[in-house]
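Workshop exercise sheet. Pairs work together: one partner reads the sequence aloud, the other fills in the structure field after running the prediction. Swap roles for the next sheet.
Pair: D.N. / O.F.
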Amino acid sequence: MEIFERAQQIGITKHPLKTKKFIPYGVSGFRTTASELECLMYRIGLVAALRSKATKQVIGVMITASHNPEEDNGTKLIDPLGQMLLNSWEAHATELANIKDEEVQANLMKLVANEDIDMNAPAHVFIARDTRPSSESLAQSVRDGVEALQAKITDFGLLTTPMLHFIVRSHNTNGQYGEPTEQGYYEKFSKAFKLLKAESKSKINGHYTPNMILDGSNGIGGVIWKSMAPYVKDDLQVTLINDGSGSGRLNYRCGADFVKNSQQIPDGLVVSPEVYNVRCATYDGDADRIVYFFIDQDGHFKLLDGDRLATLVAGYLKDIIAETSLNLNLGLLQTAYANGGSTNYITQHMKVPVTCIKTGVKHLHVAAKEYDVSVWFEANGHGTALFSDAAIKKITDAAKSNSLPDNQRAAAQKLLNIVDLINQTVGDAISDMLLIEVILHGRGWSCQDWYETYTDLPNRMTKITVKDRHVIETTDAERKATSPEGLQLAIDELVKKYSCARSFTRPSGTEDIVRVYAEADTRENADALAYEVSVKVYELAGGIGDRPKPL
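Structure field:
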């Protein structure tokens, strides 16, 4: 077809393939050094236009590399209901992104034939980007790709990743999920937050105070929080650091990934008695992750990661569901990275069932279908809560029922407000933070109270650079390695040396690194186990560069 020939020629002229590196569409979309992405971004515009024609709905394209260094960038496509791209289309995107320039026309024609796409159908693509220096020019490449297939494009400029997910879903549900604009995002979540906070007449409850510190990771999260802050200022006073306006670099010694993995405060926060026991939160580069932390009265750093968020949210929802007397099945989803201390607390103390699943949002959403209400957080702080359509109908009916006691109707209405406060499309640092603040306020808890609910097993995560990450294959929700041969046996033998220990390794979805997680009864043992397993991975999985060193 002429339109595909034209699309190929535009690519050759304006966005030719310049790298021989194979770039796959991983769990986080495409992600690599920004200088290698111009051609790929043009072609992702082509894919987005065709996906929109295939679904006859708006598709989103987010330009971000999340928690990666500032020099990296990437992109991911957002399907009509704000969910991740369908698996079969990930394969289409990977193939088109890596073929030769002169093969683009034939590939597009094959994709259209395989998916039975009506090329006369309208197409509309929403795009947004984070604050990386490379994002604007890469956005232009996407625009060129979308327009090459004569599709409509709406550019929302600077947004967090979860905001674009929200806007895509809101548009495709004709506003049922919310107004499909940046302002609509602020209004929906701030309204639910204020309704929940209004249940208590006092802004200070028990050990809770409405003052906190937020690390914006020198990225889009800080930019967007400045716009959200006026909507919630009467109930939450936030001191923002690393807001991106200074000389600090995106994700460099700041942000959720840095704080979680290094287990130390971000640059920009000065430790002094004035910040002791003050609640602190930190976003990652595109604001889809959040972890909390605080400095205790002795000046010690204390982390409240995704496992802590999960137990806090699940416990809160369990209590409110009980108040409604509704028969709703609540479950908690965790990945292999979840701390063993949290899993024991959830199953033994909270009595909430736990399902362990593979890392990645797409796996979490699939497993969530087992429950009426599910809470999922990865240890890195990426997560949310999901309510099935049937659960929302039950809750809505209960809130309106005149046959129920006042307290049950009030609990049902409270649950509906919580549904509106949660961004169910994807993990959302801003929405999650507002939910956590509601819970802590309702419970009258300080961070110290929250921290004392259970004891984490000491843990450590390391990264090993390898020649080819695909040599690592796993099973059992990524907790066991099936290749290379002998690796799992070596890990098992090392684990036996320590008490309350476990360790596993899994490849990155986007770059040639392998992550090692280890936990044990003491910090020294966890560090020793992480180091020893890292050495085995380096030796057996083709490590390159410097050998791992003791921690």
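Discussion prompt: The first helix runs from residue 2 to 14. What would you look at next?
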